[in-house]
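Quick one:
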Amino acid sequence: MGRIKIDAIIAPECDLKTLARLSKMAEKYNFNTIWMGDGAYQRDYASCLTIMAQATKRIGVGLAVTNPYLRHPIKSALAIASVNEISGGRALMGIGAGSLDTLKSLGHNWNMPVERISDMITAVRSFLSGRSVELKTDTISIEGVKAWMPLISPIPIYVGCRRPLMMRMAGRFADGVLLDNVPIEYLPFALDQLKTGSELSRRDFTKFDVGNLSIFAVSEDKKEAMKRVKRHLPYDFITISKRELKAVGLTPRDIEPMLAALRRQLPEDFMKASEFVTDYMVKNFSTSGTPEECIRRIKDYSRAGVTRILLGLPTEPSDKPEETLKLAGESILPELN
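Output:
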């Protein structure tokens, strides 16, 4: 079992001053990388990543993840190249398919996701290498586009996914994968898909970075940590597959009550959805509990083949993000680094 990279992914709901403060804390406690998502209705990721880069000196700064529907691949490449420049070469880039419901609300058709992301990887990697990009496929058309700015270092490209075809494509073309909070029991299947893709390109899979985002809460009070997870876990079940549920002995029927509450989109129903989250679900779909329990969970992920874990840090005041980072930095990371 090699040493697993331990990252923090910061929810973009927090204000920018808090974002800078949390980024500094993550670096202080020797997290490998801090990540920020590209929420359609949240703060712009380029601005957030720039603030994160300026607040730190050594830690990696990652985008997890943007998609090819809301931004043109070349504009996304320029944004991450700018972050790489201001951070001194610390940027990482994640690309995913986006949310069907979100894209629909903005007038986009969620079509050909695997092909679009594959083409985006090709376009972004070519552009970031300094070459003139010529690419015409069923999903994209780029004619002779070249960066008008210095490109200081290679930027690793990850694919955020959880389903078979996307995982195979990630193994074939990307530098790594960011699995979306998959349970440990799902990993043998996921790794098989990733290796299949890697073999198609005759790549050395031992150099492929297997990341997994995991909703995170740590407290000396186990029940308090589980309570925090229950507030956020329902949203993760919106896009979960039957195969993932089956891996831990669950069915779509088990999660339907919470999804029904979320579909009503009323504030009181968002809170009610968490009431349907069981302790068993928390155990299998989060890294949470006491520091000792979180250490065991991370070690279990590492033994199962994960090389990078992104600890998802909710940032609402009730989630106590500063306290969470401090406890993780003082009690968890020293045992794993």
